[in-house]
Amino acid sequence: MTNPDDRYGKPFDLLILAGPQTESGRSLHDISDVAPIMAEAVLVLANTPLRDSAAGLANNVFRRLEEVTEQGEPTAWGSLGIVTWVISGKEVAEYFAHSCAATLLDRWQSEAPEAEVEARLKSMGHATHMGDVDELMRLVQSVEGRPRLADYGKEVARSLKTAKVKTKLLPDKLRAFEETFEIRMHGAVREAVQAAKDATREYVGAAGREARIVVDERGPVAGDALIAGALTHIGAMQATLDGQRESLRDPLSQTESETGSAFQALEAAISRPRFGFLRRFRKPLAGYVSAATKAFRLRYAYDLTEGVLAVLAGAQRDLHALHLQLQTMVDNFKLVGERCSRWTEAFESQEVTPVTEIVRRSLCSTDQLRRLYRQTYGGDWGTVPPEMDASVRQAVGRLSRWIDRDKVEIFDELNGALAPLFEPTARMTADDFLRWLSETGDSSPEFFMRDSAALAPALCRYDRARLPDAGAFEDTAFRIVGVPDRESSTLAGVGDVVLVSTGDADRIVYLSLKLGIAASTLWHHERYLSAAEEVRRRGRVAQRIYSGFPYPSLDPQQDGHSQNGRRAVRRGGSLDKKGRRQAHER
Amino acid sequence: MVALDRPQPQSSHSGGRTLVIGAGGSGVLAVSHLKALHLSRFGRVAPGTRFLAFDVVETPPVVTVPGSGVTSRLEPGLEYHQIGRDCDPTRLAHLSRAGGDLNPDIQKVLDHQPDGRFTKSLQSGTEGERIYGLLAFYWSLGEIRRALLSTLRTLNDLRVPGELRGSVSTGISVQVIILNSIAGGVGSSIALPLCGETKRAMDRLGMDVNQSTFIAVCFTPDCFPETLLRFANAHQTINDFNIAQREALIP
What we know:
heterodimer, A: alpha/beta, 6-stranded mixed beta sheet, two-stranded antiparallel sheet, 56% helix, disordered C terminus, B: alpha/beta, 5-stranded parallel beta sheet, two-stranded antiparallel ribbon, 7 strands, globular, disordered N terminus
């Protein structure tokens, strides 16, 4: 198709000019600013209920206009201005919730007084026989009040008294006795170590329970302090036992050596041929029994100490695991708190650019929102009223439930507990916020309309001297305001605007359209003309590029546009708005 | 206020059908921003809206909605179409001078060039010369027509909330919005022919062209650094639009 197509009438119903310089003289930067703003305007005109209202109002204006001005320029040209006020009740509620979450998490990390921790530790210790080393060793070395292991010397004496032994069989008898006693000693050590295990298990269990109670009452920092105290206590016990073990090492070695020597002496005495009863060997026998008794006593003490030390090491591992859990909970509290703080900071720091000032203009400032918080929820910004704290604690339950939870779960539960409290704010529409601003004296519907009109000048700069009615546009301009619900809007009846319900709770859109403005009234139009003439004079660049187009002669006076800026709009007359070809000459 | 990093689904968008076309770099940029706005505001492109964009560069830009973090790009081959790919204006001019058999539309464009000389390649854009933009348009006319047809067909087949199902179709009407600058070399030259091709495509699909609305959004030269050619283009483009409107013609 190379010839112009005349089957569809005029190509466009409306031609909107858009540039960075506005009617009020304000200047955007360049296409990088104008393009996103016009995108917002197109979205409003195409995808919101303002679409039909704008079409209807534009048609009303075009009905009053001739198709062309006196100078023969189409009156389909126009320009628009827009400002979109934004505030989301849901986001404001989240802002409040995040701030409260950060405050609460900080409050729930208080430390417990040292005296309280000490008192709890002491109580735990005594309840489980872990008050100190002596208490523990007393426990493990006795059964029902009696020593777990008998004295070797007494056992030997009783045995020799009850059964007469031939003299030359005495060494063997004593050897057998030693073996038997050693087995009994090892058994006693095992039982004692088991008793120590039971005691430490109870101690660790008690520490866990106490820690949870402290976490519930004061938070993880205090709970962790208790566990840290228990670890220190165990460490002290270990140090004491370690010292005791060390102090037994040399005497044990010496005594065992002495025992060996005494036994040899006894054997030698028995091997010399003598007749008589046992009492002849009383002295070497007594020497051996004394040494052996001491050796067994020291060996028992040494092995028992080693066994209890191993048990305490296990207890320390278990307590350390608890400590890690609580440390993780402390870290999670801190991380979640920091995340909430960063969220509120991001919310408060608006990205203010020439574009966002027009298409995402905040309806309320941070200070106003903080005042809203104080007014609605009864606490200064940055604080959480006691009733709110209690309500959240009740919803969250015991803080100790969070010991094994990750930070995402903690945040979700805390947020879940806070969100219902801010439901009244979440339900607020942009209109509700505007109403609140009016009630507090920060704004009024009339002021808001005036402000919007000033912020939404036409995105195009014209030479006012060449505009009809010096730019009054009373008959060819209209303003539409999109509100969440016009029936209940605080802007109903205010200003000469058409109010439209958009159903968008978070926005109030102010759109102005001015129609019937010839393109020749653009501010730089004379310069466009001069440039075109210069380019034509140079003759290197094609300007008339459409085949078969009815271009006028190149006489500038017959170029078909207004040169002198005469009145561009003629009122009255009925029009075919689709511009199907009329029976007139081209 | 800063929106959270997630789209804000909204059920209040209009149920009408809209085709938004970006012509040239500025038009493509504006449509790219519009698509990003849809994703940010509605979580998706609104059901009755389609985007098309045409320019001589290979890929469309990636744009971000301020304050939301939502980024998007027009989908190449579906929403964005590079026109004039592999078009060699110099070779075409040579063929024309040698009496070669060229597509009549392209021949007519070549005939408008002073001295018939084309010295630029489209690889670096049109450098503001409208005739190169128009040449790219006719070079890729087949692809443009296919894109318009397939896109309009999806709008034609769409059922919009509130429409009666099963009724005899009386021709669907569409709001068509074409965005272009009047200063550059592509948008200023192809906006009018694009409007014409759109109407023809709608006619072919049985859509109601007369009841449809056509809106042009024209970016003025002060959106760009001032040059003699940009100002001259603005004057001529305004003239072309005026002639088309006044005489009810589409090139």
